[in-house]
Amino acid sequence: MNKPFNVPVEDLERAVTYPTEAFLSRDYLEAEKHLLWPHVWQMAERIEDIPDVGDWFTYNVADDSIIILRVAPGDGAEALRAFHNVCPHRGRQLVNTPDGVHSVRGKGRRNFVCGFHGWTYDTSGANSYILDPQDWGGALNPECTSLTPVKLGVWGGWIFVNMDLAAEPLEAFLGDAGRILSHFALDKMRYKWRKWTVYPCNWKTGLEAFMEPYHVAGTHTQLLAYGDYYAYSKAYGMHGVSGFDQRNPEFQMSQSSSVTRAGKGDDPRRSTYELIRENYETLANAASTETLVNAASRLVDELPEGTPASEIIAHWMASARRDDAARGVIWPEIPPEIMAEAGLAWHVFPNMSVLHGITFALCYRARPFGDDPDQCIFESYAIERYPEGEEPVTEWEQSEPTAENWGSVLAQDFSNMQWVQKGMKSHGFRGPLPNPHQERKITNFHRNLANFMGRGAVSLLDPAKR
Ligand code: FES
Ligand SMILES: [Fe+2]
After folding, report:
1. Contact (CB, 8 A) for 283 and 362
2. So what's the pLDDT on residue 462?
């Protein structure tokens, strides 16, 4: 077997399986409400979405709703506050979050007034008004009358929250994923578009459809014309990465595991362009940029036939970097060894996926929808590096999962997800058999999930017992 770089041998040799209840069971979904969501760091929103003091939004997951509010200028967590969206008096939501609403948002917030009995809270979460407090005979104190705080962190331009005040710091949680991806200056990118839908599959079924390129040969067959999709995957603690694997050493370079890699065939000048163009056009103008596509289109004119793939990529990157600099988009310097380690796409536990480039990222998130294990809120969004002042104005757009709305590649993914959800219910299904080399991210996800949930352990595959 062709072994990719930096994947431990023992990981490659493990064929494993795990139970389907994580996808199918109502009881499991209910348990997630207690064991997973209240104890894990999770991305709430991009910080650029609340630029002004007083801007706020709700982040809703399972039965919990959290209010996140900007209280000061700045890019760090200290400029923000997060509270549970519940009044400590009798439990009314401070901000109504009707089912099927993505998030509730507003500006200029100076306090929160509960609609039931009028108790009021300032932006620090402290209670500032109670009707007839003397009736409690002095028993009330700030402990019981202030909003319940939620832990906050900011990384890569994303606001993360954790309901568990004893949780480890965000940076420690992100570990190597944070260390490696921080080089990409994701915090300087801005939304290009963002979409969400309620989709008929479990949130894990949805997320996992985007966690490995192993499905490209079966699902996105049109993409095979210009590139190979053989991939490695690797666990980094709670998180995991996949990248294109390189069987041909001539193509082995720091970019070769990423989406900005060389195309296959006799003339990589042409196939590199076709590969990135096809990706860009069929992924709703994501997973690349116009600058990169245009620079790739010139390769055939700017380089002689027979130029080695590594030089083609170096030339492409240099000319795109120049083109971007000319319009005020400055690329971060990413050391080649970090570029190589960064791969194609990361899973950030539990429910975030980031396919990153130097000037863009295509991201996914999935969350439960109501109490139904067969439904999820599925989201995809693209972020990109823009010249200052040229960032598009975007908002979350509820969008039916069609090719017209999401691009043909995502529509192909959508065309599997609900049928995986149905198929896994079959009495003939013995449990998932993830590819030990290419789908290790998924296995790692289930290992870590089982730690939170105390059930659903990943076990070595023993064909004799199945
Ligand atoms: S429930 Fe909020 S003031 Fe009574
Ligand atoms: Fe796909």
Report:
1. yes
2. 72
